[in-house]
User: What shape does this take?
Amino acid sequence: MTGAENGAGGRGGPGRARLWDRLFASDHVAGWLFVSPAVVLIGLFGVAPIVWSLIISFQQNSLDTSGIWIGLANYRHLMHDPAFAASVRRTIVYTALFVPITLFAALAVAVTLNRRLHGMRFYRTAVFAPVVTSTVATAIMFSWLLDPYFGIVNLFLNKVGVASQSFFQDPSQALYCIVLVTVWGWLGFAVVIYLAALQGIPRELLEAAEIDGATRWRAFWRVQFPLLGPTTLFLVVWLSINALQEFDEIYVITHGGPLASTTVVVYYLFQQAFAFFDAGYATAIAYVVFLGILALTVVQLLLGRKLVHYRS
Amino acid sequence: MGDDTQTRQVPAAVGVAGRATAGTLELGGGLRPGDLAATRRWVPSWWHLVLIPLAVVMLFPFFWLVVTSFQTLAQSRTFGLHFAFQWHNYVDAWTQAPFGRWLFNTTLVSVTVVISNLVFCSLAGYALARMRFFGNGALFLVILATLMVPFQVVMVPTLLIVRGLGLVDTLPALMAPNLVTPFGVFLLRQFFRTMPVEIEEAARIDGAGRLGTLFKVVMPSMRAPLATVGIMTLLWTWNDFLWPLIVIQSEKNYTLQLGLMSFQGAHNINWPLVMAATVMTQIPMLVIFVLAQRWFVQSLATQGLKG
Assistant: This one.
């Protein structure tokens, strides 16, 4: 049978091969051999940095292996840093807009795409294409579309009688424009997830609801939407985690500006680490962000457990 | 909401056939030989009135990207709709920055990371799913924990570790932290667990070794999850921005995305040139996506179901 030669070689071979076979037959030996590459690499680039990062957060560290232990000073500084508080507020505003907009837009688009029509392949490709476009390219495309002087969006606005806007160069608009850009970039991902879930719902359920006299609209919200509960919960958690870490588009388009109006918390910590070389403070911020993400996720999952009904 | 509009528009028989097979991803298969040739090509539906604007909104940034990349600098700096067709921007962008080199770097890094993930995540995922070795439970928990930690938490020490290994500003620095991803190990472990043990036991009785069993008996039926790990890893590595931004300094070691960012920074008054560069850097992944769309979609969906 397949792979017989592996065993046959060992059975008839010299003593050393037989010893090796016997060792390899043990789950302890074979198991650790199988996981060893993963253990080494995840240990070096996953576990070690998590621990080291915590240590650095208690240090005055200028992006170096040697730091001065300063205890909780970084965390105390963080509590009284108005720039940090402002960056947290912007992150919350961004997340509070990005997550629901993406979620509801994706639900509507997925329901629209979940039917058999000519040209559906094209429509789906159109919705999915931004997913494989890099964040840098997305950012560049939108800074041109929304260019205050020569951007085509302003041309359209002028055509319908609206004055030109400054978009990314206006402190009161920039963050909302970032929301727009990232919704465009993430929509396709959320649609794929919703589509997969919609296609897993048996049609008999919907038809039964219709026979019972429910309108399409009611049948959707009463039958289909509850069945999408686990998917919605996953998307809320996943989109929130990513929204709280938003960085790429902001770095490319606004560099946190104008007037720090798009300096979200991860951009702020990036500045601390790689512009001001205050690695201790940056890692302290990173840990607080991590705890924030963890807390939000736990709350969402607990709420979700109450609201979402899992099928069998 | 359902496909009522469609059913109303087409002959009843087609409606019934459409219903019976609804749920499959392919389209337009429900037509019978008796239908008019015209309806075979285009079944009118009100849904197109929703879908066409949707497609326009999603595709317009790409459309305007391509249009601008063919404009002259003067056209782009005059407020208005301008269409032109001159290749100059592409030639200029290509000669003004080493895009070929960046494409090579990105490909080398991505391919290495994808292959390494497929091999090592399979080995680890299989062991964690099937073997009871000392500490396997704890090890799995540790891997799960690292899966949840955002990159920002680890980026400073990761840079220090990479610096300690003497890899700063080299291509291996881009590969090393991603050679084995906790996501891949976790996902493959979950899939290995869902497979029946009996096949493996039969293979073992037939004299197949552990590696033989894994690679010749188990792996062939793991095509879908392996594709997911491969495609997700490819997308992450190819489009990654923050890590290359931190660890790479010399232009010759840039990835496509890093190169594009620096190119835009250097030429940000010349939008047609920047747009040509953007088109060039996005084409490889878009082509792969269009060719393997089914696998991409399935991979993203799998991530949602198991992630």
In short: The CA atoms of residues 54 and 140 of chain A lie 35 Å apart. Chain A has two domains: 4-56, 75-307.
